[in-house]
């Protein structure tokens, strides 16, 4: 075969090769001039040059100019990862007047200079990789991106502050929003907080207006007590199934008068109130808290006598003059179509039982931070009275930072918010009890607007700051003043000696971790997790709210621990990214789909069950397989399986890959 | 004596090779991970008696302040109960570091000559190397003679109590065949973290 | 059930009540303990403090001998148990330890492949007996006896193969099985001072004081231990501790094997109760566990 | 075995997991052996057994296939399809007399840069011990042998007068 004429049609293949120094990132380890010199000797290569920063405007212009000057019809760039700059160079190729898919990229930075030390071997590897690309690009074809319309609606999963803010932003932009929340009310963790740092705004005062706005917004469909069970389709066109759990209340009839709660046969609560961190009891028919949205009661099937098959006069049902209570209610499923998805499923507080050292669950007056949030809150279980389990007021409180965080035995990461919320709780506890407050910390981290100033304020308020992670909490006194109290044993590392500090109350600043079901959610939405289990953004700096799945965005603590300002900012960003997608109105589909060459297809049906997207069907008339390009996502599994080689995947054609393999191994 | 002394360390006071020697000993490889959180000192049952808390030992060791570390009473007070090691959030083998430092101090000959623990360790070592077993009474007597002979008087009641309950034995215990152990131990490497030349 | 038995040095001296009670208990439960041939001292904390290479070689030698026997190796002393376990672990983890030990073992024609399972009597009694084997043999349940189980350091630190590192419970469960009431106190895993009791008596005695005090406050009648060093430190120095802390009442400190023996109705020689410095019989009689008959003369053998 | 033998490992990495993991290893500057030559595919399910055989036939000393962990496939189940094929392929390769260490399949997720480093280094070390595969050279030898054999046979046939 004549090499000069391989390719699309009969024209001569003219390849331009460009290798990037990336400053010293590549050139420091790989002899780029040698690679350029070598590639120049390969067949069909018309021009081969190196450049300091190929991705710069000047670098791209060089490619465009060379395409015109040397009448190039193929371009190969050896630089960084295609996941970073393939788009850039495809665009440059297009500007040179040729189809962007006549371009191929060689990764010699992430897979080369950054991971190897031996200059000769790294250079050899770069030459091999370049040769493989040169061989493959000859077989490239002109391809067109297909456009698909985008549905003008969005699914927001999770109704914490992230989901609320994202939903409102989208809804205010005129888009239809489906907000799905697992609990009976939206509000998330923020609704449980008393005040917010560093401004000490009342959390409820700033959150509940947003919650009611969600509840009444004409563009928002709010499904609480519901879960997304299935999502199919692709960017711009997702088909979603939502399971609506029975709350045993007809939502359209309930007006939230709460008469049913008053008339429940249980005169006081019979089950732990999750919203109050189990510090109080609630009835089986309940509303999580006064400002819950939607303002609908729910009946807890685990606590309700009737739903457990017991005998009950069902006084709640008779009390409701609108007959809204329906014990026969079953779960239902809603099917919706959306253009984008914002995942805002939040976090789980670290379980303090996992650090037995601190005596949580052993000593009655060891609390988690979230429990203390409820204790200091005037709508909390004690009406805002900070009292110990025996009813007395603490005279001395120890706040232990970094519980579960920065710890190889539990979670390695810094949870980012604990320092600041500990300071806030220190302030509130001081205000409520006038106790001596001891903060036991490793480092105080206050990177935020007004945060360091808040720390200073706390210092001036007379709080104690002891730099040392607590080693022991004991009830064995060695001097009389320790009698009957918990004694915190800690090295005051700035003073350089060990101290024993008797306290009446211990607060554990528990860190943030991924929810237990994070990995289930991740699979459902086809996104990735970082090693610790938080959802992975597409790029840590440049695409912080996108995921590897187009049209699925992240907001809030499901992506990593963050405070309320950052969460709201990220939720806004996720909404903005979704809006871009919706407002452009169409998505360009990558052309790497598969197609069947009819004359080779024997109609054996091997491929049919392989496609997870049901993109392949059989034309019974012709007896051949047909691939629907709209449904095909371009994985290539059917291509590899076709016994007669009738299926081709654009950009990953057999002849392209074989050419690449063989040339990669020339020097082997 | 009462003149005011300058309290400062110069770079020349450091022995960077020392930190490497310790890092190379079993269990000591993670000392650079320490964030000085002080959990070790907080949980250590005897840190209250130490001149330098375990946290400071780690910091001084990794910075090569050999003299400060080897001369502190800390390493001899450590009872090797491993509380620090299992609670360390960075999973540093703190107890192993203490062992490593003890061997270094004895190698360098800077261990306190009349402090109970180092005297006990050396007596124990010599006895076990010779007989293969440890004989409690003999060991106690030998250690007391070298560290604090007067203490033996205080122990006389204890001795009597043990005698009365049949737990006192002055016999020197030994393995049936200690010679095999002598040869075996002579052929073990000295694991002291020093790079082979 | 047959095991290799590594007594360790203390069980032949101050801790002989442990050996006596443990071996009679094993006999009563049909567990065979075969003492390791020509065993040597595990090295304890002391040897390791002087020379590290020889220290690991010393410990691993015992493992190599046990490997030849092909049985699980039972080490009742907490110190021995912890050190054997750690040596086995480090032998596999650190090439320096491995190479040194291999060279040393070779001189005796030994090798260690790393297959020995080091066990503690607590582990063996709790996991290896058929269900209800212990309970069915109980003749004198320890009804009403309030026991503070004291674990100390080495069963669960730095490696905890059979119990919770932060809240060990095996001894509690065993003694509960024979009818004892277990009191809860926060010092059960704290260090007793170990080998320092002789070398730094004032330091060690403060540590034991806190443990005994905590047990006393929890209203324990007796403290149960599973290590000769712990037992010795907690029991033998009570008079000396009382000099500094007159509030400390005498409290018997026994081996858990002694209590199990009592519950199984084993005789006084088998349970070695006569070796107590702080006698335990009075409280056992008071609770009606031991018959309140004629006082037996203290006939301690040497 | 030639001195300083540097094995060539042809690697097929899926775009979403293992290729990204390799990028992460790069960004984290994790050093590993410069022995791999990576072919990027969108999904490990695209890896055709013929690719693997072709790689060996053209001189690869080893072939590494990297995909997403089971259940994590970007295309739902492409990696399961690979797994099925791989089982067959492994037997085929073994029957060709190629050592099993030379063909490896690994699930490496986007966050497991460290794992990628470990796998490449491990595989390189194993193949260095095995030495070069040199299948093309062996093919040439076999061809010659085959030629000679047939030639001999033909001669025999001619000599026997048929």
What features would you describe in this structure?
The complex is a heterotetramer of chains A (668), B (197), C (302) and D (162). Chain A has 668 residues and is an alpha/beta fold. Chain A is 26% helix and 23% strand. Chain A has four domains: 3-144, Rossmann fold; 153-245 and 333-346 and 514-584, FAD/NAD(P)-binding domain (3-Layer(bba) Sandwich), CATH 3.50.50; 348-513, FAD/NAD(P)-binding domain; 594-649, Alpha-Beta Plaits, CATH 3.30.70.20. In chain A, the strands form twelve sheets. A five-stranded parallel sheet of chain A has the order 10-7-6-18-29. Chain A is globular and about 90 Å long. Chain B has 197 residues and is an all-alpha fold. Chain B has two domains: 11-108, Fumarate Reductase Iron-sulfur Protein, Chain B, domain 2, CATH 1.10.1060.10; 116-186, no CATH class. Chain C folds into two domains: 2-121, Glutathione S-transferase Yfyf (Class Pi), Chain A, domain 2, CATH 1.20.1050; 133-286, Rossmann fold (3-Layer(aba) Sandwich). In chain D, helix 1 packs across helix 4 (113-130). Chain D is built from five helices and four strands, in the order βαβαβαβαα. Helices cover 49% and strands 14% of the residues of chain D. The chains are: A alpha/beta (668), B mainly alpha (197), C alpha/beta (302), D alpha/beta (162). Chains A and C meet through loops of A and helix 10 of C.
Q: Superfamily at the CATH H level of the largest domain in chain A?
A: FAD/NAD(P)-binding domain
Count of runs of 4 or more consecutive helical residues of chain A = 16
Overall form of chain B = globular
- Poorly predicted segments of chain A: 1-8
Class inferred from helices and paired strands of chain B: mainly alpha
The count of domains of chain A is 4
| CATH architecture identity of the largest domain in chain A | 3-Layer(bba) Sandwich
Using the coordinates shown, work out and report the CATH topology of the largest domain in chain A.
FAD/NAD(P)-binding domain
Any descriptors?
heterotetramer; A: 668 residues; alpha/beta; Rossmann fold; FAD/NAD(P)-binding domain; five-stranded parallel β-sheet; 34 strands; globular; B: 197 residues; mainly alpha; Fumarate Reductase Iron-sulfur Protein, Chain B, domain 2; 0% strand
């Amino acid at each position: 075969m004549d090499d000069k004429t391989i390719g699309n049609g009969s024209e001569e293949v003219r390849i331009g090769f460009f290798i990037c120094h990336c400053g010293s990132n590549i050139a420091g380890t790989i002899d780029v001039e040698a690679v350029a010199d070598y590639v120049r000797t390969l067949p069909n290569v018309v021009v081969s040059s190196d450049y300091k920063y190929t991705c710069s405007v000047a670098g791209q212009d060089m490619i465009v100019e060379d395409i015109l000057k040397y009448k190039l019809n193929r371009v190969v760039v050896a630089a960084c990862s295609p996941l970073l700059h393939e788009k850039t160079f495809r665009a440059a190729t297009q500007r040179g007047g040729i189809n962007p898919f006549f371009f191929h990229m060689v990764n010699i930075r992430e897979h080369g200079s950054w991971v190897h030390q031996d200059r000769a071997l790294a250079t050899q590897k770069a030459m091999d990789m370049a040769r493989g690309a040169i061989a493959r690009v000859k077989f490239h074809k002109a391809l067109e991106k297909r456009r698909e319309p985008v549905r003008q609606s969005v699914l927001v999963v999770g109704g914490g502050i992230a989901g609320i803010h994202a939903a409102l932003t989208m809804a205010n932009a005129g888009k239809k929003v489906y907000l799905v929340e697992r609990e009976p009310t939206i509000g998330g963790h923020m609704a449980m907080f008393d005040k917010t740092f560093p401004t000490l705004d009342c959390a409820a005062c700033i959150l509940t207006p947003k919650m009611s706005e969600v509840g009444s917004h004409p563009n928002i469909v709010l499904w609480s007590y519901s879960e997304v069970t299935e999502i199919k389709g692709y960017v711009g066109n997702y088909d979603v199934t939502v399971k609506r759990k029975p709350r045993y209340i007809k939502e359209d009839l309930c007006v939230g008068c709460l008469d049913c709660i008053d008339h429940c046969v249980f005169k006081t609560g019979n089950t732990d109130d999750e919203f109050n961190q189990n510090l109080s009891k609630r009835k089986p028919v309940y509303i999580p808290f006064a400002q819950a949205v939607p303002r609908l009661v729910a009946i807890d099937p685990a606590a309700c006598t009737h739903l457990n098959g017991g005998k009950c006069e069902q006084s709640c049902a008779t009390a409701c003059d609108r007959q809204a209570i329906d014990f026969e209610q079953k779960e239902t499923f809603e099917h919706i179509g959306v253009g984008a998805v914002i995942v805002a499923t939040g976090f789980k507080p670290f379980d303090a039982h996992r650090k037995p050292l601190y005596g949580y669950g052993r000593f009655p007056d060891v609390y988690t931070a979230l429990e203390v949030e409820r204790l200091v809150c005037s709508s909390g279980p004690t009406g805002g009275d900070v009292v110990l389990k025996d009813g007395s007021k603490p005279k001395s409180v120890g706040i232990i930072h970094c519980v579960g965080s920065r710890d190889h035995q539990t979670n390695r990461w810094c949870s980012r918010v604990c320092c600041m919320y500990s300071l806030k709780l220190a302030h509130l506890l001081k205000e409520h009890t006038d106790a001596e407050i001891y903060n036991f910390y490793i480092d105080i981290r206050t990177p935020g607007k007004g945060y360091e100033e808040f720390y200073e304020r706390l210092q001036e308020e007379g709080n104690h700051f002891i730099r040392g992670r607590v080693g022991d909490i004991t009830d064995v006194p060695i001097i009389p003043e320790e009698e009957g109290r918990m004694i915190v044993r800690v090295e005051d590392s700035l003073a350089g000696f060990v101290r024993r500090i008797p306290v009446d109350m211990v607060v554990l600043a528990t860190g943030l971790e991924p929810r237990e079901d994070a990995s289930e959610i991740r699979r459902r939405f086809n996104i990735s997790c970082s090693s610790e289990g938080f959802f992975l953004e597409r790029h840590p700096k440049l695409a912080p709210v996108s995921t590897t799945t187009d049209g699925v965005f992240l907001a809030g603590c499901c992506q990593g621990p963050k405070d309320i300002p950052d969460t709201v900012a990220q939720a806004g960003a996720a909404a903005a990214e979704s809006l871009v997608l919706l407002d452009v109105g169409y998505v360009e589909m990558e052309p790497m789909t598969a197609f069947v060459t009819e004359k080779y297809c024997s109609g054996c049906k091997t491929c049919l069950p392989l496609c997870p997207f049901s993109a392949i069907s059989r034309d019974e008339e012709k007896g051949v397989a047909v691939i629907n390009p709209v449904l095909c996502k371009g994985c290539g599994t059917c291509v590899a399986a076709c016994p007669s080689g009738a299926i081709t995947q654009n950009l990953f054609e057999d002849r392209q890959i074989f050419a690449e393999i063989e040339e990669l191994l020339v020097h082997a | 004596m009462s003149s005011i002394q300058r309290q400062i360390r110069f770079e020349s006071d450091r022995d960077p090779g020392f930190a490497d020697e310790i890092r190379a000993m079993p269990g000591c490889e993670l000392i650079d991970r320490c964030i000085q959180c002080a959990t070790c000192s907080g949980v250590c049952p005897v840190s209250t008696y130490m001149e330098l808390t375990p946290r400071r030992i780690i910091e001084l060791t990794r910075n090569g302040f050999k003299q400060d570390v080897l001369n502190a009473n800390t390493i001899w007070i450590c009872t090797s109960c491993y509380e620090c090691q299992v609670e360390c959030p960075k999973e540093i083998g703190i107890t192993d570091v203490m062992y490593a430092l003890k061997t270094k101090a004895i190698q360098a000959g800077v261990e306190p000559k009349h402090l109970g623990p180092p005297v006990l360790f050396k007596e124990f070592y010599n006895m076990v190397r010779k007989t293969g077993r440890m004989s409690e009474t003999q060991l106690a007597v030998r250690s007391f003679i070298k560290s604090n002979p007067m203490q033996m008087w205080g122990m006389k009641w204890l001795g009597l109590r043990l005698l009365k309950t049949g737990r006192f034995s002055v016999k020197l215990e030994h393995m049936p065949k200690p010679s095999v152990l002598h040869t075996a131990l002579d052929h073990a490497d000295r694991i002291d973290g020093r790079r082979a030349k | 059930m047959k095991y290799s038995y590594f007594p360790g040095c203390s069980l032949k001296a101050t801790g002989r009540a442990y050996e006596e009670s443990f071996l009679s208990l094993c006999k009563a439960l049909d567990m065979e303990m075969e003492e390791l041939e020509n065993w040597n001292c595990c090295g304890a904390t002391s040897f390791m403090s002087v020379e590290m290479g020889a220290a690991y070689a010393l410990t691993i030698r015992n493992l190599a001998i046990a490997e030849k026997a092909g049985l699980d190796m039972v080490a009742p002393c907490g110190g021995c148990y912890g050190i054997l376990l750690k040596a086995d672990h480090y032998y596999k983890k650190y090439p320096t330890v491995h190479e040194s030990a291999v060279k040393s073992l070779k001189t005796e024609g030994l090798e260690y492949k790393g297959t020995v399972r080091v066990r503690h009597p607590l582990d063996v009694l709790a996991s290896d007996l058929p269900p209800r084997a212990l309970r069915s043999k109980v003749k004198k349940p320890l009804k009403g006896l309030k026991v503070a189980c004291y674990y100390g350091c080495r069963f669960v630190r730095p490696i905890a193969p059979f119990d919770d590192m932060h809240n060990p419970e095996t001894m509690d469960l065993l003694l509960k099985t024979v009818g004892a009431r277990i009191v809860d106190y926060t010092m059960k895993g704290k260090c007793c001072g170990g080998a320092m009791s002789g070398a730094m008596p004032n330091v060690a005695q403060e540590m034991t004081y806190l443990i005994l005090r905590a047990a006393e406050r929890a209203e324990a009648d007796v403290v149960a231990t599973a290590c000769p060093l712990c037992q010795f430190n907690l029991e033998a120095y009570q008079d000396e501790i009382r000099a500094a802390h007159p509030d400390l009442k005498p409290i018997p400190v026994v081996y858990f094997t002694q209590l199990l023996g009592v519950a199984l109705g084993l005789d006084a020689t088998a349970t070695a109760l006569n070796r107590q410095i702080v006698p335990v019989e009075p409280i056992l009689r008071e609770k009606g566990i031991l018959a309140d008959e004629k006082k037996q003369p203290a006939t301690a053998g040497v | 075995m030639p001195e300083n033998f540097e094995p060539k490992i042809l690697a097929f990495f899926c775009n979403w997991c293992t290729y990204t993991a390799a990028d992460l290893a790069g960004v984290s500057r994790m050093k590993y052996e410069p022995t791999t030559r990576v072919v990027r595919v969108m999904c490990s399910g695209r890896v055709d057994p013929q690719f693997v055989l072709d790689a060996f036939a053209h001189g690869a000393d080893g072939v590494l296939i990297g995909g997403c962990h089971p259940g994590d496939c970007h295309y739902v189940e492409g990696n399961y399809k690979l797994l099925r094929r791989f089982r067959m392929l492994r037997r085929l390769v073994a029957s060709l007399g190629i050592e099993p260490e030379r063909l490896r399949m690994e699930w490496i997720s986007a966050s497991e840069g460290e794992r990628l480093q470990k796998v490449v280094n491990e595989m390189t070390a194993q193949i260095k011990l095995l030495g070069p595969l040199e299948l093309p050279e062996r093919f040439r030898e076999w061809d010659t042998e085959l030629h000679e054999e047939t030639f001999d046979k033909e001669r025999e046939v001619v000599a026997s007068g048929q």
